[in-house]
Amino acid sequence: MTEPREVLDWATFGDAARELARTVADDGFRPDLVLCIARGGLLVGGALSYPLKVKSTHLMNVEYYTGIGERLPEPVVLPPEPDGVDFAGQKVLIADDVADTGATLEVVRAFCADHAAEVRCAVLYEKPHATVSCEYVWRRTDRWITFPWSAGLEG
């Protein structure tokens, strides 16, 4: 028997992204740029940037998971690494699909903290054992999540 999963389909993703953006806006946070963590945060960041009216989006490639429940010893920032000067004095919203262990978000948040004026995180899902607490979370779960962009591709 396989463990139960949290399954997110495309229609629910759209609803989730709008709700998450509304939560950010209702909090009064007005980011200058959205930093998408590749790969899972690419679609999340794009979906947040429209309702938040943020045209400046950036990308940070971080490898950590290599398969279901399989990961490297620690997250690795892959090239090209963003230029910190682009973040100087900016309010940054980091976007990702899930805060699982929190390790990836810790690496990205630390990078931004060295450059940006303010940094906050928005994720679709946050796991209870994550080492970071994101400011904006759509749902909390302890299940493995199947996202619409990876459905059918997982091992």
TrEMBL record:
Protein origin, superkingdom: Bacteria
Keyword Transferase: yes
Record bears the keyword Glycosyltransferase: yes
Signal peptide: none
Keywords on record: Glycosyltransferase, Transferase
GO molecular function: glycosyltransferase activity
Pfam families, A to Z: Pribosyltran
Database matches in CDD domains: PRTases_typeI
Phosphoribosyltransferase domain sequence ranges: 6-153
Classification via InterPro entries: PRTase-like, PRTase_dom
Protein name per Swiss-Prot or TrEMBL: Phosphoribosyltransferase
